[in-house]
């Protein structure tokens, strides 16, 4: 099972250093050039762009709807989502490309936990079946007492075990064969084989605690990373809201108030 532990260890740095590249979704696009004619004045070409700021500067309306610009994401809410379900906080912050790695890691960790459980229980069942065949124990007729199954791996028979407990005055630890606690190994080699399987099964089940710890770490890292994702989203939203080009138009008059032309100015706000 050593390769499973190594696989679990590889999952954590995989989630820590997985990054996704994001590109801005909004780009200024060139449109057809239009000419604005004025009676008795010079006409000038104006290049119109598909940016709300242009229209706002001409109409005097500087407001944009939240539906167009988007709304801010709460870092606290992103942390809660990411802490409860790894990757969900990133989905909330519109960063699924990063959140999917936490989701994949979560699924892989729980599959590893299931694999440890299945394999560990299989090893224990196999060892108990082996002891039933080669030591004469009865498993199905009584509840499994883990201490009993540990003791039969260290003693050749029930008499050897009971004699040692009597020597130390530990009468409450005696095994009564009439109550189903009987065992007698045919050889020490068979007892050692049982001991090896029993230890392997117990160790595998104990390793599930390591997987549970990795799951908790994955949840915590997911929540923290979701906070950064929400802040990144808000920063991009702020840049889109504050940036853009603005165009202003005015007329040029001479000394007798005759219109000689149109003056255009183009500026970019930061």
Mind explaining what this structure looks like?
Helix content is 56%, strand content 12%. The longest helix has 39 residues. A hairpin with a 7-residue loop joins strand 1 and strand 2. About 21% of the residues have low confidence. It is rod-shaped and about 125 Å long. It is built from ten helices and four strands. It is mainly alpha-helical and 270 residues long.
Fill in the keyword field for this structure.
mainly alpha; 270 residues; 56% helix; two-stranded antiparallel ribbon; rod-shaped
How much of the sequence lies in strands comes to: 5-15%
Percent of residues in helices: 55-70%
Question: How would you spell out the order of helices and strands?
Answer: HEEHHHHHHHHHEE
Low-confidence stretches: 13-68
Rounded mean pLDDT score: 77
User: How many whole angstroms does the radius of gyration measure?
Assistant: 37 Å
Helix-strand category: mainly alpha
Q: How is the biggest beta sheet arranged?
A: 2 strands, antiparallel
Anisotropy-based shape: rod-shaped
Distance between the termini: 57 Å
What's the total number of strands?
Answer: 4
Q: What is the number of helices?
A: 10
Strand order of the largest sheet: 1-2
Question: What's the quick description here?
Answer:
With 270 residues, this protein is mostly helical. It has ten helices and four strands, in the order αββαααααααααββ. The chain has a two-stranded antiparallel ribbon with strand order 1-2.
